[in-house]
Amino acid sequence: MSTALNIKKLSKVYTDGFKALDRVSFDVQEGDFFSLLGPNGAGKTSLINILTQLNRIDEGHIEVFGLDLRKEPVNIKRMIGLVPQEFNFNMFLTVQQILFYSAGYYGLSPKAQAPRINMILKKLNLFEKRHVMARFLSGGMKRRLMIARALIHQPKILLLDEPTAGVDVETRQETWAFLKQLNQEGLTIILTTHYLEEAERLCNQAAVLHLGQLRFSGSMNALLKTFNEEYIQFFFSKPMTKLDLPKYFKWLNESSACVTVTQRRTLQKVFSECEKRSIKVDRIDVLESRLERTLTGLSKGKKL
Predict the structure, then answer these.
(1) Where are the alpha helices (DSSP H) in 189-277?
(2) What is the CATH number of domain 228-287?
(3) Could you tell me the pTM of the whole model?
(4) Spelled out in words, what is the top-level CATH class assigned to the domain 1-223?
(5) What is residue 219's three-state secondary structure?
(6) CA distance 103 to 113
(7) Environment class of residue 128 by beta-carbon count within 10 Å: exposed (0-12), middle (13-18) or buried (19+)?
(8) pLDDT category, 121, cuts 50, 70, 90?
(9) Are β-strands 67-68 and 80-83 bridged in parallel, bridged antiparallel, or unpaired?
(10) What is the pLDDT of residues 64-106, one digit of tens each?
(11) CATH 3.30.70 domain position(s) in the chain
(12) SS3 call for 213
């Protein structure tokens, strides 16, 4: 496998003097599912913006599949697909129109556009919605449309910025399944997330940023050894009593309860138990995460 992304001593300082990135260095190998973890203000968005050429490099060096970002910006732009956190397409265009415009932007020939668009729409179960305006899609379908647009030019790296933030449980599970499929087909994926469980479920490699500095880079398994617990609140689709729930749930009221997730009692196992008991979960919120506690420790001088 070749190196998909090589970052060396990358720094970024904004005009107000804020140092968003401070000599950050790490590699991503071709075929990796790589997680970029860290709280707000860690430098994740600044790094994504540099990779997508929305921000300039102040110091350091970036190579994408051996190409220098400063010397080969156009070729590198074609190698990267971005799925931003917020929906940023024209809500009054149809699904098909959005993808045609994106295909044209990346220089796909008119002859190649229709087959590529139809293939992606079928893969993402959006083909039947191709003539529907984006504003009438569900949240999950809009999220899939964002992924479809990012894949239209057959990128070698897919960047995902908080892809499941604010989505319901079903949409999150569907998104995870599709991303795992893409990675198994050989696509290199870089995921930024606040959810350690999401990174744990999907990724084989990870880096942790804190206050613009790299605090960890290595395997996901090595990172997980530094964490212990995560406190998650479950919200139910219908009223629940204490007797309806597994014993390890802390019942709050008829619509919600809390669970302590550990390396042995994973979120996946909790969902499986809920499914066995026909408990319908509407959404979940991370109340106190393993990642947050570790980063709090980092701010006090502790090391991973």
Answers:
(1) 196-202, 220-224, 267-276
(2) 3.30.70
(3) 0.77
(4) alpha beta
(5) strand
(6) 6
(7) exposed
(8) very high
(9) unpaired
(10) 999 999 999 999 999 999 999 889 999 999 999 999 999 999 9
(11) 228-287
(12) strand
